[in-house]
Design goal:
The protein is an alpha/beta fold. Helix content is 27%, strand content 21%. The protein has 2 helices and 4 strands; from the N terminus they run ββαβαβ. The protein has helices at residues 32-38, 62-78; strands spanning 4-7, 20-25, 46-49, 81-85. It has a 4-stranded parallel β-sheet, with helices on both faces. β2, α1 and β3 form a beta-alpha-beta unit. The longest helix has 17 residues, at 62-78. The protein is globular. The termini are far apart. The model has no long low-confidence stretch (mean pLDDT 87).
């Protein structure tokens, strides 16, 4: 079985395979998550990907920003492991 991917805003189902890995970190530069996924093509794992194309600005849209933050915290609580990539130069 190949890995499963839970995208930002989606909820985990009770039967979502474990381990569940939250992929946090930098969104600047290349999308490191795609490189990461390719290493697990045949592994029974669920990746939780919080990456959005455009993150809500907390000053312009505080409600959307709060919703994204709450979703990320909830997913971190449900994850078995969290991987954070800070990127080159950080």
């Amino acid at each position: 079985m190949v890995y499963q991917l839970v995208k930002a805003g989606a909820q985990l189902k009770p039967d979502t395979p474990q381990p569940r890995v939250f992929l946090g970190g930098s969104v600047r530069g290349r999308d490191w998550r795609q490189d990461f996924f390719s290493r697990f093509e045949q592994v029974d794992v669920t990746f939780i990907n919080p990456r959005l194309e455009a993150y809500p600005d907390p000053q312009l849209d505080p409600g959307a920003h709060a919703s994204q933050t709450a979703w990320e915290r909830s997913m971190l609580d449900q994850a078995d492991l969290a991987v954070f990539w800070l990127g080159e130069g950080l």
